[in-house]
Amino acid sequence: MLQCCWELAIFWHILTLQRKRYKGLILVFVSKTGRFACTSFPAERRNMGEPNNALSVYMNRPDRIKSVLEYYLGEKLPQDWQCEEVRGLTTLRNGKGKLSFRQRDFYGRGHAWGKDFWLGIENQDSINLIFPWRMMELDSLAYGAEIEEIQEKNSQENVHYGIEDDFKYHYRKEDRLEPVLNLTLYWGRQEWVNPLSIGDMADIDTLPEALKGLFEDYKVHLIPMRSIPDPELEKMGSDLKYVLGLMKRTGSKKKYVEYIQKNREYFSRIPKSAVDVIDACTNIKNIREHMQFQDAQITRSGEEEADMCYALDAIIRDAEKKGKRQGARQGVKQGIDRTNRLIQLLLADGRQADLLKSTTDTLFQQKLFKEYHI
Fold it and tell me: At the top level of its lineage, which domain of life is listed (predicted)?
């Protein structure tokens, strides 16, 4: 009992640290297995300037998940497709016995083609050189949790173990794990070439041929989001096609302005989660400052929405005004510098009378400018 209380105290300390990223957390303690779980509210995450946080919230919607899955598979998902998030933390202990945790960006229970499975989605805005190991660890923990649930169920139901079952580990030959499927969405600009597997991280080339067969690889299924062709984006049935279409064009202000104006119907009522991604992952500056969000109860997406077209127009107007003010200030400064130069030259030539006349006769002053090539 004391051990459980101690672990609970440590776990609560971890969650307290996590509040720097989240507004709300729900703590769940499963006493029979000694495992902890945590549910967060993705729409209330803090510090949306962090790309990974913004992407995790944005890709939490089933229609957007369906879009990337269909693109990766190269075919439409069946009518029985379902996906429901099971948000939680996986706890573990490090080599020193300290409690730690792992959390996926998205982890949910999926169903398609009559088959149930677990689906994990990770968002990356930069290349991670140990990512294959990280994914392998997450999958290992997920399968471990499944095994624990099967063992606990078998123990509670007092199942009968046959000669081919494993009584010691409370596991029957007929028990089956539900597969854990993974998809990694890479949103960065730099091309991700390697590593895409444990083999890319390991020095297996120097292994003798006789030993290479003992090496088990683990692969990462990665989609370079900014490289999805426009014709493939058009096939998507969610607003992901517009967000990616914009992100692909942010290298040129002219191109992204034209794209927003072309798709005004969407961008005039863009969901807040999409704005967060654009704000965090592109170089479009000050876009949020010019937005007013509508209440989620009256919007078509179920999220707060804003008019990005109006915000963009406001940014352009502000830039034009700023340019005019800067131009006016520059013109005044150039005029002062030009006049001072004329004064210097007239004084150097001993033409004090002409200098005095130029202060009241603008035509004569212009004549002197031409004479001195100023």
Answer: Bacteria
Instruction: Name the one residue in this structure whose structure tokens are 């020193």.
Output: 96
163-207 confidence digits (pLDDT tens): 898 888 989 989 999 999 999 999 998 999 989 999 999 999 899
> Within a domain: residue 200?
yes
In Å, what is the CA distance from 306 to each residue of 42, 45, 265, 309, 312? 19, 19, 12, 9, 12
pLDDT of 323: 57
List, in sequence order, every residue forming a beta bridge with 39; answer none if it has no partner.
26
Instruction: Report which DSSP code applies to 225.
Output: G
Which of residues 216, 237, 258 is at a domain's end?
237
Helix axes 308-348 and 362-371, enclosed angle (nearest 10): 80
**Structural tokens at position 217:** 């690889």
Query: Buried (b) or exposed (e) across 171-186, using 16+ Cβ within 10 A?
Result: ebeebeeeebebbbbb
Distance, in Å, from the CA atom of 260 to the CA atom of 242, rounded to the nearest integer, reads: 9
Domain that holds residue 178: 62-77+104-157+164-237
Q: Tokens representing 46?
A: 């803090």
DSSP state of 207: S
* H/E segment holding residue 8: helix 2-18
Torsions phi, psi of 32, nearest 5?
A: -70, -30
For the full predicted model, state whether its pTM sits above 0.70.
Answer: no
Give 157's contacts (C-beta < 8 A, 6+ positions apart): none
Could you say which DSSP state residue 196 is in? S
